[in-house]
């Protein structure tokens, strides 16, 4: 009977898997279509210095407006784009569009433009043999300064092994900066910090959420700022939603933060308006 049940369970599992694969294939085809149709857009979320809230950098985040399903979040479609390989052309489009946009803000606003632009790069992209060369070509085409590009990668993507580390090293040689994203949530060890050429740790929102009081998260957030300071890395606290969290982070030693408390992700037009308003104030 156990065997029967086991069989049944497998049948259900297989059916689900097939269904998932079918759904994946369907969405994968739609992603391809979306890239051709120009249905992806980019928004930019400021990273600010503490305590003044001044913009130091903008993180590029991709958005998909599906013709029938409406808005589909990157948490849903990026994993599918990774599995289907579409992340490679999509990622190239994201990088080139972000660099072109950042170069334009640089031209228009000069030193009033944020110093850096961040672009998320997935594990699949890091494993592409020609990835560093593609980044170099995209930088050259945009005329944007490599030192002002920050590539955000997760520790899990880097932990994958030698190829990813070699790619990161090649990027660093170009002058590009590396940030470890969602730090503390992956399955890596702190030893990664010795081998990974990262400049910045983005401390995950889950640690920021529980930062008030004597929570475990507060203890971890404190340890993380000590590690980053000791290793001469920069720490950015992610997902800061309240003034109280921002104050606590500052007290713990954090000097950079990102989150809805400071700004939601903004459209290019909104970024332009804010930069324009700041320029008018500065005159
Ligand atoms: P991430 O790189 O860690 O990006 C931060 C996410 O947290 C963004 O979600 C942002 O909108 C959200 N966020 C920022 N501040 C707050 C806050 O105060 N509260 C809350 N609740 N959320 C906040 P988003 O845009 O939905 O992106 C989700 C994830 O999808 C990203 O996490 C990243 O892993 C991936 N992703 C987004 N854009 C790209 C991209 O262009 N390429 C790749 N490969 N992955 C991307
Ligand atoms: Mg990121
Ligand atoms: Mg993050
Ligand atoms: Mg995240």
From TrEMBL:
Limits of the EAL domain: 24-279
Superkingdom, natural source: Bacteria
Signal peptide start-end: none
Official protein name in the record: Diguanylate cyclase (GGDEF) domain-containing protein
